[in-house]
Structure prediction request, 366 residues.
Amino acid sequence: MLCLSYLTKTWGRCPRSLIGGIKSMKNKELLNTVNALLAGDKGLLAMDESTSTINKRFEEVGIPQTVEYHRAYRELIVTTPGLGKCISGAILYDETIYQATKAGVLFVDKLKQTGIIPGIKVDEGTTGLAGFPGEKITVGLDGLSQRLAKYYQLGARFAKWRAVIAINAVMPSRGCIEANMHALARYAAMCQKAGIVPIVEPEVLMDGSHSIKKCFDVTQKVHHVLFDQLFAQNVNLHAVILKPNMILPGLSCPRQADIATVAEATVTCLLQSVPAAVPGVAFLSGGQSPELATAHLNAMHVKYKGKLPWALTFSFARAIQQPAMELWKGNDENVKVAQEMLYHRASLDNAARRGQYTPDMEKKFD
Ligand code: 13P
Prediction:
């Protein structure tokens, strides 16, 4: 430790071989984290809803919107029996990373005990993008290096930054895509410097009446700009996980797509826009029903197993949590059944990663 801090302070005077050695130690750590996150049939659980988002979800199911209810709900999640068999990494929110179970065990420690790597959402949400009415830019780069150092000390080994891209007749603009992908690349570079694996999430939203083809074209363009920016910012692609949307028609598009079409469009889009150096692609669920999100992931594995350069996995929030939250309703007596549901959904997503999911597996909770 002494030696390392000395070397950091005297970086400019360090022999090249020593700098290379430290850099490769960091790279090794990043690669170990990536490998552990993508291993086997496990996936990621996003439990990083911001205060306003979790309050909105709680309100929809009649749960009081207080910090204590946030804590109790996150305790329900991290103490779910067997969760570590299904989940390799859990993304926390700033409020949550400092919280603990009623018995006083920090959530971060509870996750680590069950073999789950703690991660952290580090963007600070979105704001209107000046010059582009109706479009959003994700903020949080100021002070990010310091926050990453603190989160590393708290035990986080990977992070998430979400950019949102909306589709309508005139959106997305080139300005919106470029500003957001530049911010994602700057975030990713800072994460890697801090020994934290960046999840880069350029989410093309499902809202709207656009066709599946439009979603395909926009997503492909967004990925091209993203990887151009990651390259420009010297980000090591081997230590990045992409968190994209699946290729879907807009929620109010009159022509919806079947499962095989979504699976094929999604993988085709990724093959045309994601370099093979990227080790893993972890989908968001984006407002799909849990059953559909699982079925789409499964169909991709059935059709393309062994033919893809990257691992295909999940990083769902709603598609894992929503049914459990609805069962819990904020009542202690519902914790057990809610945990069983959470485990059930996560294990169905494991089956999807193996290409072994069938809709009749849903029946356990009918
Ligand atoms: P959903 O799976 O609910 O889309 O959330 C994933 C996520 O982490 C969004 O940032």
